[in-house]
Design a protein that fits this description.
Elements lengths: L3 H12 L5 E6 L2 H8 L6 E3 L1 H9 L9 H14 L4 E4 L7 H14 L3 E5 L18 H14 L6 E6 L1 H5 L1 H13 L4 E4 L5 H8 L6 E4 L11 H7 L3 E4 L2 H17 L4 H5 L6 H7 L2 H10 L3
Parallel strand pairs: 1-2, 1-8, 2-3, 3-4, 4-5, 5-6, 6-7, 7-8
GO molecular function: lyase activity
InterPro entries: ICL/PEPM, Pyrv/PenolPyrv_kinase-like_dom, Pyrv_kinase-like_dom_sf
Protein name: Isocitrate lyase/PEP mutase family protein
């Protein structure tokens, strides 16, 4: 199993190399295992998807630090690929932020995303989000950087100011978070290609773009995003939206008289899925210890 330190170092090195980095959203251990075997440079633990799959609740500040740490740890242990994990607002004040960063790092993920929303936070592509004063988030970023044990553990600083305070304020905040020590900058929910271009070209540090199908931001090709200057493109919703659609269709098929016709061509092959989940190791163990 690859160590957490080597995963972090691998991602930190990749960020210095040319080319945009694609990060699919993982939200449960099936999605994590599937994505892990596909050769991505990094995976993104989506807060929306993780809260939905783990608790069956909306991403509205209802998941606790313990809930999210549990999932981050499980994902990190089950995968060889570096993971950036959603850490919401840090789950409280400055002491909580330090506590969160230390435990996420100890859990084995390669980085944490922290945002400047007021608590309780909301999904970044939903209305009604409010942000804390800039100075408060600057202090959170500084504390997060101080709390990590190794500089390869990445701090992703996100601002949700665009929707309520405008793009200029969002850019001002991202610049302040950069000066506070953030490794990756994340301006949430730009609403046009022109805004995306301004964001991508505004900073020296790597800039992340959030691609949410049906969200507030245009979803562009990876080549266009790279041309703009984005370094990291996350796709947090793609997996669970695809899963939801697929499950709905096959469950509808189960309601029909001809079940096989309703599931034909829509199912992962059972033996392959068993191997994906690690049954080969179980079979080998049983052979080695057969009486």
């Amino acid at each position: 199993m690859t160590t957490a330190a080597s995963k972090r170092q691998r991602l930190a090195t990749r960020l210095t190399q040319p080319g945009i980095i694609t990060a699919p959203g993982i939200f449960d251990l099936i999605s994590a295992r599937l994505a892990d075997r596909m050769g991505f440079d990094v995976l993104y633990m989506t807060g929306y998807g993780t809260v939905a799959s783990y608790l069956g609740l909306p991403d509205a500040g209802l998941a606790t630090f313990t809930d999210m740490l549990n999932r981050a740890s499980a994902f990190a242990q089950a995968t060889e690929t570096p993971i950036i994990a959603d850490g919401d607002t840090g789950y409280g004040g400055l002491l909580n932020v330090a506590h969160t960063v230390r435990h996420y790092e100890a859990a084995g993920v390669a980085g944490i995303q922290l945002e400047d929303q007021e608590f309780p936070k909301k999904c970044g592509h939903t209305p009604g989000r409010r942000v804390v004063p800039l100075e408060d988030m600057v202090r959170k970023v500084k504390v997060a950087c101080e709390a990590r044990a190794n500089d390869d553990f990445l701090i992703v600083a996100r601002t949700d100011a665009r929707t309520t305070l405008g793009l200029d304020e969002a850019l001002r905040r991202a610049e302040a978070y950069s000066k506070a020590g953030a490794d990756i900058l994340f301006v949430e929910s730009p609403e046009s290609e022109e805004e995306m271009q301004r964001i991508a070209s505004a900073f020296e540090k790597p800039v992340l773009i959030n691609n949410v199908e049906g969200g507030r931001t245009p979803v562009l090709s990876k080549s266009r995003l790279e041309e703009m200057g984005f370094k990291l493109a996350i796709y947090p919703a793609t997996g669970f939206l695809a899963m939801g659609k697929a499950l709905e269709e096959v469950y509808q098929g189960l309601q029909k008289d001809d079940v096989a016709a309703g599931t034909q061509g829509r199912l992962y092959e059972f033996d392959a899925f068993s191997r994906l989940m690690g049954f080969e190791a179980v079979w080998e163990f049983e052979k080695a210890h057969a009486e």
